[in-house]
Amino acid sequence: MPIATVRGVALHYEVLGTRGPWVALSPGGRRAIEGVESLAKRIAGAGYRVLVHDRRNCGASDVVIEGNESENAIWADDLHELLKQQNAFPSWIGGSSSGCRLALLFALRHPQAVRGLLLWRVTGGLAAAKRLARRYYGQYIEIARAGGMAAVCATEEFAERIRDRPENHDRLMRMDPARFIEVMSSWNRDFLEGAEKPVIGATEAEIRSIRAPACIVPGNDLSHLRSAAENLGRLMPDAEVHPLITKHYDLDVAPREEWDAREADLATIFLDFMKRVEARAPAPAR
Q1: HEC per residue, the chain
Q2: Which of 19, 199, 225, 275 lies 20 to 30 Å (CA to CA) from residue 234?
Q3: Per-residue pLDDT, 201
Q4: Measured between alpha carbons, how far is 19 from 44 in angstroms, rounded to an integer?
Q5: What is the pLDDT of residues 129-146, one digit of tens each?
Q6: Could you give the count of Cα atoms lying within 13 Å of 218 in the half-sphere of its Cβ?
Q7: Domain map of the chain by residue range?
Q8: Which residues, in sequence order, are CB contacts of 40 under 8 Å at separation 6+?
């Protein structure tokens, strides 16, 4: 797969399909391209060009613990630049969980580049904010304080980033642990602020300002409450909510296998929505 230099960072990406409107999909968590590639292939097979990529600090892309904004905002701007390089505007922007947060921020920061939104497993609520902030940031702050950057590199998460892109080892080891802790602490605070918002990553006023049509598929666990997705759907001016898996799990994350088994149904929901939206009016100029 090719590598693009985006805002000084090497990002690993792939484009599936050779014709049709552009779609960009991002997986949840810090999962690599493989987390959304199968769904991307289904959508590409229906006549779309689908871009998937490893976000910075994920998969085989560069690890860069730097920036003055939230990590989700940085991801959104990275994706905008990557799509610009592909001459892919306007695009459908979609994602699951952390990919959903990226998509919402993309729509807020780059509204003219958005054809519509495909959102599934929306993250919201105090429990999700606390758990995920520690998962992504808090634990690594503690590890860096105790053992410096060598200890960070030895964690499962960062060892995988080094395995997938060996250059990440030297990049991390050159980093001042104090700066690593400073950036991670800032990202941690930004994430925890999401506990007071309708969904993690966007205020009510911001959500109401999004004019792009959105298709929302709720999650079914404690990190991806159905109520968060339904509330998002009520606040967005042009949104549809399509429940897919209605069984709720009192777990941090519902079994991935159940979502994998319903992937064809998820693709059908999104494809039907995109075709109906595109039939409303002439396609935007490219």
Answers
A1: CCEEEECCEEEEEEEECCCCCEEEEECCCCCCCHHHHHHHHHHHCCCCEEEEECCCCCCCCCCCCCCCCCHHHHHHHHHHHHHHHCCCCCEEEEEECHHHHHHHHHHHHCHHHEEEEEEECCCCCHHHHHHHHHHHHHHHHHHHHHHHHHHHHHCHHHHHHHHHCCHHHHHHHCCCHHHHHHHHHHHHHHHHHHHHCCECCECHHHHHHCCCCEEEECCCCCCCCHHHHHHHHHHCCCEEECCCCCCCCCCCCCCHHHHHHCHHHHHHHHHHHHHHHHCCCCCCCC
A2: 275
A3: 86
A4: 9
A5: 999 999 999 999 999 999
A6: 23
A7: 3-124+199-278, 130-191
A8: 16, 23, 25, 50, 52
- Please choose, from the candidates 51, 52, 8, 34, the residue with its C-alpha nearest in 3D space to the C-alpha of residue 160: 34
Rounded CA gap, 115 and 92, in Å?
5
* pLDDT band, very low/low/confident/very high, at 194 (cuts 50, 70, 90): confident
**Band of residue 282 on the pLDDT scale cut at 50, 70, 90:** low
162, amino acid identity: I
pLDDT at 185 over 80: yes
CATH number assigned to the domain covering 3-124+199-278: 3.40.50.1820
Residue type, 115: R
Share of the chain above pLDDT 70, in %: 98
β 114-120/22-26 pair status = unpaired
Spatial CA neighbour of 135 closest among 196, 198, 54, 200? 200
Beta bridge partners of 91: 22, 114
Rounded-to-integer distance, Cα 46 and Cα 271, Å: 8
Angle at alpha carbon of residue 196, lines to 195 and 201, rounded to 5°? 65
Mean pLDDT confidence for 165-175: 98
What are the two backbone dihedrals, phi and then psi, of residue 228, each rounded to the nearest 5 degrees?
-65, -45
